[in-house]
């Protein structure tokens, strides 16, 4: 169940249903990928048709940001849960621990993966970590890419967590569909937050759609241009989308 939202198609499930749908993909051992969409991803897809095709071909596409959840409510008149990657990742790992699902982690620096292993040992001691791999920060050769695919498939993992950042991780997952024989989820910045390398916004900021502002205060140089440009573009596009969605109702009232 996906619904059109400007440039992408967003899965309109509750948070609990999204967890269940992900576990269904894992149980089916299906080569698939899951996108966790925020404003940045939506605007990237609007500006790049090829990237939009990648996002819209995902088996599931979660409305990560509060603007997406609120926007879907305004457009379709239905309550839409926010499916935030920072909540989704630890919850999926907890379910994997309970159900004995081996998990592989792909992406991030070696230092981050060492920190991740220490976090998992403390918080999820019974989780079967099938492997972790930090790829080079450059384009891989075909041989290197094939070696990584073989390593992941041969690890015994049934679920792959991908932390390469948007849009790199979505493009990588789309290219790996049919090669990596398990569901993949791109979680962007959720991993460093989960393991304590970055702080998460207070709950009141999460609920009022200001989590982006908290992240901006932590990394102003890196995020200043992205947030102000993408947020402005998003507001413009959403106003157009909302106005277009109301036109049939206005015409019906006039008639």
TrEMBL record:
The keyword S-adenosyl-L-methionine does not apply. GO terms for molecular function: N-acetylglucosaminyldiphosphoundecaprenol N-acetyl-beta-D-mannosaminyltransferase activity. The chain crosses the membrane at residues 180-197, 227-244. Pfam families: Glyco_tran_WecG. Its EC number is 2.4.1.187. It comes from the Bacteria. Keywords: Glycosyltransferase, Membrane, Transferase, Transmembrane, Transmembrane helix. The keyword Metal-binding does not apply. InterPro entries: WecG_TagA_CpsF. NCBIfam families: wecG_tagA_cpsF (TIGR00696). This is N-acetylglucosaminyldiphosphoundecaprenol N-acetyl-beta-D-mannosaminyltransferase.
